[in-house]
What does this fold into?
Amino acid sequence: MTDIEMIIQRFADILFDNKTCDTKTCCKYYDSLCENADSTFSWNDIDYSGNKRANWQPSAHYTRLEKMITTFGRERFSDSEYMRKLCGAIAFWGKHDFKCPNWWYNDIGTPMSFGNIGLMLYGHTDKDTSDTLARLCGYGSMKVRPMELTDDNGRIHQWTGANLLWGCGNSVRHALLTNDDDLLLEASNIAANEITVGNFEGIQKDGSFFQHGRLLYSGGYGRSFALDVARMIYIFDGTKYQFPKEKLDIFLIHILDGLKNMQVCGSLDINCLGREYVRPGSTELKNLKTVLKLMKASKDLPRKTETEEFILESEGKTHRNITKYYDIAKYLCHHTDGLFIGAKFTKSGLRGSEICNDENVLGKNIAHGCTIFAMRDGKEYYDIAPFLDYSAIPGTTAFYENNKELFSNNEWSADRYPNDYCDGNAQNDKAVVYQHYEHDGIDALVTCFAFKGGFVSMGCNITRKDDTCRELYTTLDQCFDRGDIAVSDSRVTHNGITYTSLDGKKITVKKENVCGKWTRNNRQFPDNSEKHSDILTLKIFHENVAKSSYAYMISREENIPSVKLLRNDSNVQAIQLPNGKVLAMFHNEGELDTDTRIIKGSGIYIE
It folds into this structure.
C-alpha cells in the first residue's frame, strides 16, 4: 500500500466514523430520491433554485448524500441499486453545477462535501463518477480553480485561519482523488505555514484564536480549524507529508492552552463562539471530540496526558481548578471547585462580536464586553439563542431595547470598540480584569475579581449621558429555568449557583415561559417554527440618578465565601477574601484602608 492509498483509507475511516444521522432518516432520504429523464437522481423537496447565503437550500443535496454514505457504511456498496442512485445523484449535481451567492459554499463547503464523498466511495464507482467527484472537489483546490473566481488561481493563498485550512483540506482531498503527490506536499506545506502564533488572525500567543479580524473565535472558526489540522496530522502520521514538530507544538497551544479551558462538561463558553452561538448545538464540543480522538491516536503528537485530561473533562468525569487570563483576547476563564466562569472584555483594536450573513443581528450588547457566563454542568445556555432577551446579556449593563430597536442599531458590527482602558492579570487561582464600559449613552468602570470558590463583578460611576427615563439594569444571569430557586433581597440560588449582592442592592428575579424561534437572531435559519422554554433572569436595577453602582458575587451554593466589599468607586474597586487577602484595582494611585492596614497601590493589586 502506497502512502497516498494509506492516507485515503485513514481519511475515509474518519468520515465513516462520523455518523451524524439516524438510519431511519437516511432510509427516507434514499426512498425519496427520484429518477430524472436523463437517469440522474434528485429530491423533489429540495429548492435547487434557492439563493440563501447561509443554509443554502441546494446544499441539502450533498449533505444528504454524505449522511447516507456514512450511515449505511461500506457494506452497502455491494447493493447495485443503491450505487446506481448514489452515482445518479452525483451526476445530477455535476450536470447542473449549482452556485451560491455566498462564495464560501462555492469555494469551500461544496468542494469539501464532494471531496468527502469521493474519498468514501474511492474505488467503488465507475470512472465517470470518480471524475465528476474529482472535478467538483477541484473547485476548492489550489491547483484547479474556477477561472471566474480569480485571475491567477491563487485565491486560496490569500486566505487566513480557518478559511485557509479549509482550502488546504480541499486541496488534500483533490490530491488524494487524483493521486497528485506534488499537490499533496504543497497543501501540507501551506497548511503548516498557517500553524503559527501571533498573526493578525489565527492562533494567538495566549492560546486564543482570532478570525474575521481581532475577534475571539476559538470555539467557532477555531474549532473548524482544529478539526482540519487534527485530521491532517492523523492521516499524515509517519509519512513525509507530516507537519514539522514545531508546528505540532503550536497546534497544541490552541487546543490544550486555549480551548481546553473554555469549556465545562463538554459545553463551550458562549464568549468564545463569535456569532455562531445563534446556531443550534453550537455550545456542544461536537467535532472537538473528533479532534481529541484523532490527537490521542496520532503517534506524532506530544502532550498525550493533557489530551486525556481534556477528554475526561469534556465528559464531566473530572474537573480542574485553573484561572487563566488571555491577555491578547481580554478574556478570563475561571474554573474553581466545579464552577466555571467565562468573562470577556473589549479593548480598542478588538472586535467584540459581529453580524455576518444575517446571523447575530440582535447581538450588539455582546459586542461591548463585560459578558459573564456561569456554568456548573454546561447545560445552562444550551440552545438558548431563540429565547434570549438580547438587551439582558449576563454581565452587561444596558438599557432595555426590544428586538426592533436592537435590530435597527446594527452599525456596531463594523465598529471596533474605542476603549484603551482595559486589561487584566491572573496569578495562580486569582485574577483581576477591568474595563471602561461605554455604549449607548452609558458610562461605567467595571472590574471583575476571580478567586478560589468565587467570582465578583462590580461597576461604579454608572452614568447616563441622556435624560431619558429608560429602564437601566445590570444583568447577573439569563439562563434556562432549572427548577428549585431560593430568593432573598440580597441572595439568589438556582441550579447550584448562588448570586450574592455585596452592596445590599436587591437582586430581582424574573421567571417566565418564553416563546422564541431561531430566525429571530439568525435570519438565514430555515426553521421558523416557534418554541417555548422557561427562562430565568436575574437583574439589579439602577435608579435614574446621577451615578449608580453594583457589586455581586457568583459562587457554588454549598460553599459561599465570606467576601467583604472594601471600595467601589472611580479611584479604587476592591474586595477582601475570607483569608484576609485583598484583590483591588487602583484606577488612580492611592491608598486603600482595610480597617486593619493601609494598602498603597497603582493599577492591579493581587495578594
Summary: The chain has a mean pLDDT of 93. Residues 396 and 566 are 22 Å apart (CA to CA). The longest helix spans residues 103-120. The chain has 14 helices and 26 strands.
